[in-house]
Amino acid sequence: MRPASLRRARWLAHPDGVGASAAMRDWLTTPGSLTARLIAHSRQFRVQKLRQAGNLCLADEAAAIGLARPARVWEREVLLRCDGEPVVYGHTVVPLSASAQDWPLFSALGERSLGTTLFYDPLVERGQLEFARIRPGHPLLARVHAALAREGKDGRSDTVHYARRCVYRRRQGLLLVTEVFLPAVLNLVAAKSDMNVK
Question: Which CATH number applies to 3-184: 1.10.10.10, 3.40.50.1700, 3.60.110.10, 3.40.1410.10?
Fold first, then answer.
């Protein structure tokens, strides 16, 4: 496969197309707020902000947010942690054309959950979920590995991850949220079961 093609993921409308295990598919298809589910599966949930600034959007993000080609956007990167363990990498992009009225809380989120604001704002319209396998060579996977490597965790470059994304609309503004699921997310179900046994 050519290196250039690895910089784009093949986004599909149905999770069956990505070949995820049953346990991973269950996480990919979480209805409603993923944040709420992660909170329910951990004693302590935290949003760790890695970066929030202007940047060029990725090649496979442009069309999803109405851009003819990759252009500068507002970008937010976070790790979602359950009991200290990173379980999801979140990547959000907003076109520069969006106004503060479209997304009034985005610039001031800090380490608060974006999902909490999206699901409880009656003006927000949620699009359809799309699913993909993020393969080695994709920029998001490189960022995941870099974030994990900074804390001494395995940042293997040959690992395939599963992801989902969704476009949200508020007034005239579009916002794309991509969630890359880390292998540790599969441990949360077992941890929850253990808690219920006691």
Answer: 3.40.1410.10
